Amino acid sequence: MSHIMHRSLRAVPPVAVAANGIEIVDSAGRRYIDASGGAAVSCLGHGHPDVIAAMHAQIDRIAYAHTSFFTTDVAEQLADTLIESAPAGIKHVYPVSGGSEAMEAALKLARQHFVERGEPQRDMFIARRQSYHGNTLGALAVGGNEWRRSQFAPLLIDVKRVSPCFEYRERRREESQEAFTDRLIDELEAAIRDAGPERVIGFCAETVVGATAGAVPPTPGYFRRVREVLDRCGALLIADEVMCGMGRTGTLYAIEQEDVVPDLIAVAKGLGGGYQPIGAVLAHERVIAPIRNGSGVFQHGHTYIGHPVAAAAALAVQVVIKRDRLVERVQSLGRYLDRALRERFGRHPHVGDIRGRGLLMALELVADRDDKRPFDPALKVHARIKAEAMQRGLMVYPMGGTIDGERGDHVLLAPPYIIDETGIDAIVERLAHAIDASLDAVTASA
User: Fold this and answer.
1) pLDDT digits (tens, 9 = 90+) for 355-371
2) Would you tell me how many other CB atoms lie within 10 Å of the CB of residue 286?
3) What angle do CA 125, 136, 383 make, to 5 degrees?
4) Can you tell me the mean pLDDT for 147-170?
5) Ramachandran assignment for 37, one of left (phi > 0), alpha (psi -120 to 50 degrees), beta (any other)
């Protein structure tokens, strides 16, 4: 009996005892290809010698120093490295210990920005349905994952919600892509008018939607037009790149592909690659200036922010990504993965959509391709696929509730940047068998 409160209180998962490259090994000696990077975390795979060496060296120097007393060279170097490649005007880094903390800090930073500007009436965020921004109460409030939110709803701040830029599910049959984008922008403008433009702090959005809806990219021009709308009312654009950032979608910051500069960017998973818990908020100079010129203090903090060993791990990860040109590798391998998925699943009767960017891809499973009808949620197709994949030595990241928090199933793939074409072929092959076995079981039980 385990004393850990595991994610399921009714089962204990396999015990991981070793990992190297793209594989994890359990205590029974079974090997699993980590095709999801855990939860899109392990961008360099497991056991990278450069990262491990950097962590050891940092522990030998200094393992911890509280940021109310000290900074450290390694934390400063990490911040410098992030800013060197950040969008124009992004000048400041606030390190934290994970993605939820990053979004929580971003929300508080955005609010304090307006308080110190003399606009304390700004108290409203706008976000999208079928989004995910973290599990702390503030991040959960702006998130649109209804399954995660529902029982905690009485504890959450009020947030205006608009439609996601989810073309496969939200675009009407008669709409062009451009008309669909127009409708989403009109809806955002209406939400701002309804809230009162003078009350809106900002708009929170994943640049490429991650786990809740499954690797959903924006339509062309969507974020550029969002930026224009927000500029008209003086609100901030908060880009959640916890999952899609740090090279995962083919540029270091996913928002680069939208030709837009946000006010705040939250990063985490690919920042430290899983070697240590770390995240960060990157802030534009215009956000920080009123605080620096006002109170001079961001009224926030955690015990482990700027942790030297976490900073050392993240710095090493970012050095390897740049040195080994892994962002370019993500671009080429992303094209290969997309092609392999389409060749294998493009005509599959129960794969309705194949989508994503770079090495963040997803398959959406449907009962009927023609009308996009999802499977009955009671069948838990996503959970069956995860179990069948594990039996075949494959870790993928399936989820249910793709459409509205209840209906819909998808499988997310986020393999390490170090993977090769042979590894991708193995992922696609094992995933195909896992999906077919799951759907055969569903058919047999019907």
Assistant:
1) 999 999 999 999 999 99
2) 12
3) 105
4) 95
5) left
* Token pair in block for residue 136: 């702390």
Q: How many CB atoms lie within 10 A of CB 187?
A: 13
Residue pLDDT, tens place only, 29-46: 999 999 999 999 999 999
What letter represents residue 340's amino acid? A
Radius of gyration of the chain (CA): 22
Whole-number pLDDT of residue 220: 98
Q: What's the CA gap between 434 and 116, in Å, rounded?
A: 54
Give the other-Cβ count within 10 Å of 99's Cβ: 31
Q: Distance (Å, rounded) from C-alpha 182 to C-alpha 318?
A: 37
Per-residue H/E/C for the chain: CCCCCCCCCCCCCCCEEEEEECEEEECCCCEEEECCHHHHCCCCCECCHHHHHHHHHHHHHCCCCCCCCCCCHHHHHHHHHHHHCCCCCEEEEEEECCHHHHHHHHHHHHHHHHHHCCCCCCCEEEEECCCCCCCCHHHHHHCCCHHHHHHHHHHCCCCEEECCCCHHHHCCCCCCHHHHHHHHHHHHHHHHHHHCHHHEEEEEEECCECCCCCCECCCCCHHHHHHHHHHHHCCEEEEECCCCCCCCCCCCCHHHHHCCCCCEEEECHHHHCCCCCCEEEEEEHHHHHHHHHCCCCCCCCCCCCCCHHHHHHHHHHHHHHHHCCHHHHHHHHHHHHHHHHHHHHCCCCCEEEEEEECCEEEEEECCECCCCECCCHHHCHHHHHHHHHHHCCEECEEEECCCCCCCCEEEEECCCCCCCHHHHHHHHHHHHHHHHHHHHHHHHHC
The dihedral formed by the CA atoms of 259, 261, 264 and 270, expressed in degrees to the nearest 10: 40
Structure token pair of residue 133: 């921004």
Beta bridge partners of 394: 33
Residue 446: what pLDDT?
Answer: 64
Give the tens place of pLDDT for each residue, 57-71: 999 999 999 999 999
Average pLDDT rounded to a whole number, residues 181-187: 98
For 367-403, the pLDDT digits (tens) are 999 999 999 999 999 999 999 999 999 999 999 999 9
- Give the residue from 287, 266, 298, 269 showing the smallest Cα distance to 133: 266
Contacts of 406 (CB under 8 A, 6+ apart): 146, 147, 377, 400
**pLDDT band at residue 443 using 50, 70 and 90 as cut-offs:** confident
267 forms bridges with which residues in the sheet? 280
8 A C-beta contact, residue 185 and residue 226: yes
